[in-house]
Amino acid sequence: MIADRRFAEIKVGDKASQSKTISESDVYLFAGITGDFNPMHVNKDFSRKTVYKKRLVHGMLTGSMISTVLGTELPGGSTIYISQELNFRAPVFIGDTLTAEVEVLEKREEKKIIVLNTIIYNQNQKVVVTGKAVVKKD
Amino acid sequence: MIADRRFAEIKVGDKASQSKTISESDVYLFAGITGDFNPMHVNKDFSRKTVYKKRLVHGMLTGSMISTVLGTELPGGSTIYISQELNFRAPVFIGDTLTAEVEVLEKREEKKIIVLNTIIYNQNQKVVVTGKAVVKKD
Amino acid sequence: MIADRRFAEIKVGDKASQSKTISESDVYLFAGITGDFNPMHVNKDFSRKTVYKKRLVHGMLTGSMISTVLGTELPGGSTIYISQELNFRAPVFIGDTLTAEVEVLEKREEKKIIVLNTIIYNQNQKVVVTGKAVVKKD
Amino acid sequence: MIADRRFAEIKVGDKASQSKTISESDVYLFAGITGDFNPMHVNKDFSRKTVYKKRLVHGMLTGSMISTVLGTELPGGSTIYISQELNFRAPVFIGDTLTAEVEVLEKREEKKIIVLNTIIYNQNQKVVVTGKAVVKKD
Question: Are the Cβ atoms of D35 and B37 closer than 8 angstroms?
Answer without folding.
Answer: yes
